[in-house]
Amino acid sequence: MNLTLKIWRQKDAKSQGKIVDYQISGIEGDMSFLEMLDVLNEDLINKGEEPVVFDHDCREGICGACSLQINGEPHGPDRLITTCQLHMRKFNDGDTIYIEPFRAKAFPVVKDLMVDRSAFDRIQQAGGYVSVNTSGNTIDANAIPIEKENADDAFAAATCIGCGACVAACKNASAMLFTSAKVSQFALLPQGQVEATERVLAMVNQMDEEGFGNCTNTGACEIECPKGISLENIARMNREYLKASLKG
C-alpha cells in the first residue's frame, strides 16, 4: 500500500506548526496505524531527518495515550477503538491521510502530534477519588450490597481511559463527557456518597478553570469515544451538580 501522509509538524508549544507531506510505501493492511508511523519514523531516521513525535504507551486500547486526529476524526475512521487499534486495512492504496494532534485550548501541543493532557489529571485530582478511611472501622467494599443496574452503570463509566477524544470531537472542546464519567462512577456507588457534594463541585469548577468549553448537546463525544461512554453520564453530572449547589 502506497500512501501520502500530511502530518502536522510543530517544534514546540510556542512555535508555529505546519502540515508536511510524506510519501510512504510497503504498508500492509494488518499493520496498526502506530506501526505505520513507526515505519515512517524509521525511514526518516535512516535519512537523517527528525522523526515525527506522537504519544503512545500500551498499544492495547487501555492507556488512552495514542490520541491522534486522523482525517478529521479522533482515533480515525472506526468506532469504539483507539488509534493503536486502528488497522491500515481501513484505508486504500493511494489514499491521502491527514494526521493532526487533538485541537483544544486546554490540550496545548508539546511537539508535533503530542499534546499535554494533564488538564484531565487536575480534574481527577480535584475530586475523582474516594478518601481512605483509616479510623479502624473500615468496611469491606464487597460486603456492601449494590443494585446490579447501578453497578453496571458505574463500571461502564469507569471504563473511560481519559484519551480526550470527546474534547477533540466537540466544537466547544468540552470535557463534560470525561468529567461526568469520573463523577458517575462514584455517584452510583455507596462509597462515593460521603464526598459527593464536594466532588462534583470541585471537578466541574476545575474543568472550567482548565479552559474547556460547555456541552454542545450534539453527541459527537459519545460517537467518537473509544469506550462508548454514554451521554447519560452528563445528565447525571448535571443533576449531581444541581443538588450539590442547592446544598451549598
UniProtKB/TrEMBL annotation:
InterPro entries: 2Fe-2S_ferredoxin-like_sf, 2Fe-2S_ferredoxin-type, 2Fe2S_fd_BS, 4Fe4S_Fe-S-bd, Beta-grasp_dom_sf, Helical_ferredxn, SDH/FRD_Iron-Sulfur, Succ_DH/fum_Rdtase_N. This is Succinate dehydrogenase / fumarate reductase iron-sulfur subunit. One of its GO terms (biological process) is aerobic respiration. Belongs to the succinate dehydrogenase/fumarate reductase iron-sulfur protein family. Residues 1-103 form the 2Fe-2S ferredoxin-type domain. Signal peptide: none annotated. It comes from the Bacteria. It holds the Pfam family Fer4_8. Its cofactor is [2Fe-2S] cluster; [3Fe-4S] cluster. Residues 151-181 form the 4Fe-4S ferredoxin-type domain. GO terms for molecular function: 2 iron, 2 sulfur cluster binding; electron transfer activity.
